[in-house]
Amino acid sequence: xxxxxxxxxxxxxxxxxxxINEFYHFINEPKNQKGRKNRNYxxxxxxxxxxxxxxxxxxxxxxxxxxxSGDILALRYCxxxxxxxxxxxxxxxxxxxxxxxxxxxxxxxxEDSVVIxxxxxxxxxxxxxxxxxxxxxxxFAYIPDRLHRVQExxxxxxxxxxxxxxxxxxxRYHILNPKELTDRLSxxxxxxxxxxxxxxxxxxEVRYPNGNSDFIKNxxxxxxxxxxxxYGIDTFYNEEISFDALDRKDKLSKIYSENKQxxxxxxxxxEQKAKILLEKRRLTEENNLLKKQREELLTNIQNMQRLNExxxxxxxxxxxxxxxxxxxxxxxxxxxxxxxxxxGGDSRFRRRDVLADIFETGGVxxx
Length: 367
Prior knowledge:
The chain is built from 8 helices and 11 strands. By secondary structure, it is of the alpha+beta class. The protein has 4 domains: 1-135; 142-241, Glutaredoxin (3-Layer(aba) Sandwich); 251-312; 318-362, no CATH class. The N and C termini lie far apart (134 Å).
């Protein structure tokens, strides 16, 4: 639950390193260690120049988160109080471009909580508000060293950034304790005393920056505090400039970056796939061409073998070739001699002449 919110202007002397240093100092402040033996147990936090953002660190019941988005540096501190079963925490956001410092304080109670503590502004907030880095609000300090005692005319036409809580009173009596009220409204309202009034009024005027006013009758410290805190949350808390919003933005940025990388990887994969498909198509065409050439070559070889087989009259083993050749020549010679003796018919003379040509060409014998 958000309990407190405000926004202050800072001068050019303020920077991220100064904010980090003040933040670390608060974390390790002895009175924030709850009586631990090792009061400096978070001193090993890295300095700002060596931070890898987003940064998180947890020890026992304390947690620290630091992140940055654009010109906005965001710090978060959480303390899980075991005694009261309550989670306390605050956010500090420094908008460097607008020179603004945002303060957010939150508290979460467990269902088993037995103690409901009131809202106390963290000391770090007060330290920064008192520093020379925070610009004044029309010469009004956010945490004044003394009460603002003014005349009505000095605040009538002034436009303050914070509402004015005006106590009209005489010098003898205050309707509320102005010092305690000032402490409770640090950073969210200016407590103004209009003294030397003719009569004491039992009401408080709250004059807002827009010029409107509310009057709180029979006021109490708690009633005034709750009203001003509610105004501060409604006026100064910007959902777009909050730690959770920056955290979501950071996560969305990471998701976008991861998706971009995935898309680039997908595009690269598709390009590689397209190249592989083209290469596959080329190899397929070459393979088909080689297959066709092989088939044509096999067909030619088969045709040549078929032609050779048609010309062959007798097939013999190589080791019997000479014997068969001699036998064949012997038979042909016998047939030739028979043709020479037998002269019965023209066809026989033709066969004899053919055999004579074969013998003469092959060098078997000469006539």
